[in-house]
Amino acid sequence: MEIRRACLLLIAFVFSYSSSADSEPVWRWECISGTCQKTRITNETRDSALSLPACQLFCGEYGRLWPQPTKEYYTGNYLLHLNLNSIDLNYPQDKKSTALANLAFRRFAQQLRGLVPSGKSTRGGRSLVVNAQVEDPDIIRLTYATDESYILKINELSDGRVNASITSNTFFGARHALETLSQLIIYDDIRNELQIVRDASISDSPVYPHRGLLLDTARNFIPIDAIKRSIDGMAASKMNIFHWHITDSHSFPFVSKSRPELTRLGAYSSSQVYTEDDVRDLIEYARVRGVKVLPEFDAPAHVGEGWQDTGYVACLNAQPWMDYCVEPPCGQFDPTKDGLYDVLEDIYGDMVDLFEPDVFHMGGDEVSNSCWNSTESIVSWMSTEKSWGRTATDFVKLWDYFQSKALERLYRKTSSNIPIIMWTSGLTESENVTAYLPNTTYIIQVWTTAFDLQIIELLQRGYRLILSNYDALYLDCGFGGWVQGGNNWCSPYKGWDVVYSNSPALIAGTYKEQVLGSEGALWTEQVDGASVDGRIWPRLAALAERLWAEPSTGWKAAEERMLIHRERLIGMGIAAEALQPQWCLQNEGDCPAPGRALESAAVKRV
Ligand SMILES: *[C@@H]1O[C@H](CO)[C@@H](O)[C@H](O)[C@H]1NC(C)=O
Ligand SMILES: *[C@@H]1O[C@H](CO)[C@@H](O)[C@H](O)[C@H]1NC(C)=O
Ligand SMILES: *[C@@H]1O[C@H](CO)[C@@H](O)[C@H](O)[C@H]1NC(C)=O
Ligand SMILES: *[C@@H]1O[C@H](CO)[C@@H](O)[C@H](O)[C@H]1NC(C)=O
Ligand SMILES: *[C@@H]1O[C@H](CO)[C@@H](O)[C@H](O)[C@H]1NC(C)=O
């Protein structure tokens, strides 16, 4: 790499240069000391002039790749003109993943087409043949055990075609390889053509198996198209879990086949719903992109709208809300009602049919003792049926009663006792968690801060964790308060640098193996389909690299590639937030303050 940085790049082009006065290119880029420097094109340098993306490809340790690869990265110094109209895939035929691979390849071709500015020609250049060797092409379900690794090699065949060879154990690895391949193809706006790296050898696999986005679609409705855009962004960033917080107390947009009245009453409108077809379509859309959809049905709190006629929800929109819950409208299941569990079983059954989950999220967020304690029928049941009092301990028992019965109903619908995810709460505090949530069944998702002692205590007790600590990974922080003035509760805004620096390995120390990964979380009280892209992107991509590679370097080393990836997301139609003036992208290394010591120290706990 040092040699490459020191030398002027020698890049071979096979092209015909046509100049016309009005589009005569003015600028070229030169890789000097690891950064691309903007320079005037002269008569002498015209033929060898590098476009900015061509320079980026070979300059810097990982070129234009996001996330950075983890094992081997070699890309030579040569580019070839690529013919977009002649690209083919050879993938194992008549296997369970064959159709997925064909769709993934179609998406790959679309991504390449998207690189070409409208009105520009896509003709001429070399053919590309992608040869995929997949060890187990019948695997189409992503689990924590799925091998997502891949090897990608590119070389030139004697007949002039470009040979991209992919070796992987699964479709999921092969799909990631296509993503990497797409990042090795650029549009050269000096020569107006697509170009592909001629020689490459890349070996890559993720560090963490759970690399996710949590999206709340109940506080505000998020249209399916907007969800799909985020799944596209996840695919481009090699993320793999879409955690769908599909219901909450504000609305119930999920159409339960067996309990449609919940949606009829609980959706914001009859069009702001997710039908069975919508859900199935989204699951397949995500699968093609290497993403699994993980459903959450949050309970016993975070319920309300939709349940009006059942009598199963206590404190429904109780006022003043702050006496009974953390945000309006309040609502919490009444665990003493036997009929509740029949309804839950139906909803679980519908969700299991659709999502075919290998893990299920049961929520368990923000349960309020005061809601239950203020409901006369509940406290009298506790006293007469259970001889319980009204202390905090008694309400933990009531919650446990609910959780045990709900879990039993879920397991009637799943073919095996799949792991359950629950949020950190009073139930996951060290003194309670082993009694109520056995580490063999439960995975704990941490929303509390990276410094929360609970994290280490849970790890010591053998729990597997998913980190969504709000001090780094809540994407909704840093806006105005909506139930009071000032800023919202988890302000300030978490910049991409903060997201990038949130290292599970540093947080978990010697227990790193028990961390499955992380999720960036977008709660949608203050976002809807109109603004969701910019709230998520490009910050979620910062998390993608942290989880894929767990780099030992900080965000500064990734800054140039982050800007490139943000442009890539924009090119895919995702309205990602701008991070810096475009000037910084075109003048690498000139924006960071010299000797800047601002790089956030990553959190270290153990
Ligand atoms: C560059 O080449 C053009 C056309 O060949 C010529 O007109 C022009 O004077 C040259 N410019 C310089 C600075 O030599
Ligand atoms: C393509 O490249 C792979 C990996 O280098 C190689 O094994 C394969 O033989 C090549 N294909 C052809 C047709 O040469
Ligand atoms: C429940 O309410 C009773 C009566 O007001 C009170 O004595 C008790 O402390 C409350 N329990 C909790 C956990 O707050
Ligand atoms: C743990 O459970 C006990 C009752 O067993 C309860 O008093 C306590 O509040 C719980 N811990 C937390 C932090 O909620
Ligand atoms: C899970 O918890 C049990 C006790 O509740 C403990 O004996 C066991 O070691 C824990 N598992 C792990 C992997 O730590």
TrEMBL record:
Signal sequence interval, chain numbering: 1-23
Q: Which InterPro entries match?
A: Beta_hexosaminidase_sua/sub (IPR025705), GH (IPR017853), Glyco_hydro_20_cat (IPR015883), Hex-like_dom2 (IPR029018), HEX_eukaryotic_N (IPR029019)
Q: Which residues form the Beta-hexosaminidase eukaryotic type N-terminal domain?
A: 65-184
- Upper lineage: Eukaryota, Metazoa, Ecdysozoa, Arthropoda, Hexapoda
Q: According to its UniProt record, which protein family does this protein belong to?
A: Belongs to the glycosyl hydrolase 20 family.
What gene name is given for the protein in this entry? NAG1
Q: Which GO terms describe its molecular function?
A: beta-N-acetylglucosaminidase activity
Q: Which GO terms describe its cellular component?
A: plasma membrane
Residues at the catalytic site: E366
Q: What is this protein called?
A: Beta-hexosaminidase
Superkingdom of the source species: Eukaryota
Chain ranges of the Glycoside hydrolase family 20 catalytic domain: 208-550
